[in-house]
Amino acid sequence: MTTHFKLRAYGKINLGLDVLRKREDGYHEVRMIMQTVGLFDQIDLFISREPGIRIETNLPYLPVNENNLVYKASRLLMEEFQIKSGINIRLRKLIPVAAGMAGGSSDAAAVLVGLNKMFHLGLTERELMERGVKLGADVPYCIMRGTVLSEGIGEKLTPLPPMPQCQVLLAKPAISVSTKFVYENLHIDQFAPEEHPDIDGMIRAIQHNDLYGVTDRLGNVLEKVTVKKYPVIEEIKDYMKKSGAVGTLMSGSGPTVFGLFVSPKAAAEAYEELRYGSRRDLARQTYLTNMYNPKR
Q: Taking burial as the number of CB atoms within 10 A of a residue's CB, which of 27, 83, 114, 189 is the most buried?
C-alpha cells in the first residue's frame, strides 16, 4: 500500500453554457461544453495511523471539516469500504475559490481518484463518477476531465475530441457571485432563440479541430444576470478582446473571465498588464495557462 500520493486537481471553463428550463424539482436543465485547463490545485494524501480525516490548506478561510468537499469525498469512500486508517490531506489552492471554475469539485474528484488508487479499491472511472455525483453535479466531470458535453443537471457526460490548443488567460475580479442568486434571477423563458449559445455548432467545430469555429460560438446565458450586476466582468472581456483574444467569456456563474489567444506574445502581454500593470485594478487573481486534455 502506498502511504503518500501527490495529485493535481485541474480547473475548468465553460466554452458554452445554455440553460434549457427549470425543472419541477428546482434544478435547472443545462447543456454545456466543459473544458479542463492547465491551472490546478495540489493535493497530498497521507495514510495516518491515527484514525480520522485531517485537512490542512494554504488558505485560512477554507473549512477543514465536513463542510469541505475534500472531507466529504474522503468520508464517502472510507465509510463504504470500511477503511480504518486515518487520512491526512494537504491542499494547496491555486484555482480561484467560488469563481465558476469547479475548484472544490475538482479537489473532491482528485481525492476520490487518489483514495481509489491508494487503497486498491478497484473502482472504475464510471463507478467513481457514480459516487462523485452524490457530492456535486460537477464532480463526475472533474473525474472524467477534458472536452465534454454536459447535459441534464450536469450529470450526463459525453466526451468530445480535444479542444484545439491555445493560450488561456484567466482573470477573477475582486467580487463574489452567488450561484443561487444568478439562477434565481435567470428568466430563461424570456430569452429569444438567438440569445442561446449554438452548442451543436460548437460541437461540430470541435470535431473539425476548428478553433475559430469554437470562439465564434462562445456563449453563456448566465452572463445576462451576472454582467448586469457586476459590470467589471464586461470590462475584463473588453480588455482581453482589445489585447488580442480571439474569444472571451465568463466561466460558469462567474465571476472568472477567460480569454483565448492564438498569439503567446499577446497573451503574455495581456497577462502582465492584468497582473502587474495598468489594468491590475480589474482582477484580483490572474493566470496564464492552456487547454488540458488527458489521454483517453
A: 114
